[in-house]
Amino acid sequence: MARIAGVNIPTNKRVVIALTYIHGIGPANAKAIVEKLNIASERRVQDLTDQEVLQIRETIDADYSVEGDLRRTVAMNIKRLMDLACYRGLRHRRGLPVRGQRTHTNARTRKGKAKPIAGKKK
Questions:
Q1: 14 beta partners
Q2: 59: DSSP letter
Q3: pLDDT in single tens digits along all 122 residues of the chain
Q4: For residues 59-82, b (16+ Cβ closer than 10 Å) or e, as one string?
Q5: Which among 28, 24, 32, 23 has a CA at the least distance from the CA of 56?
Q6: Is 8 helix (H, G, I), strand (E, B) or coil?
């Protein structure tokens, strides 16, 4: 099992797919890393040499913000919005959708499970 950026990536998957298990690396970034290091796209993680794993680890450390650093940055950005008390910050504070989605119906992911209101039935 290869360990990159503090994450154990699965050994039996293709390298491009396995790299997406790292928070902050999606399919496009994974493909760019593999192309930059001239690793064949059909190679599996278990087939990589220690040198190739080391190259991938160094490339990610140098060029990408991943895992803990990325989570911390995102959390700080949200906290900054909340401290400014701008519209987006208020929506974060109240746990409502931030990007203009409707809340009359739907929005259950942000609002949580529906709470019954007494005396509403007629």
A1: 44
A2: H
A3: 788 888 899 989 999 999 999 999 999 999 999 999 999 989 999 999 999 999 999 999 999 999 999 999 999 999 999 999 999 999 999 999 999 999 999 999 999 998 888 776 66
A4: bbeeebebbeebeeeeeeeeeebe
A5: 32
A6: strand
Quick one: tokens of 40?
């064949």
Domains and CATH numbers, the chain: 2-67 (1.10.8.50), 68-111 (4.10.910.10)
N- to C-terminal Cα separation, the chain: 60
Backbone angles phi, psi at 10, to 5 degrees: -65, 140
The amino acid that residue 103 corresponds to is T
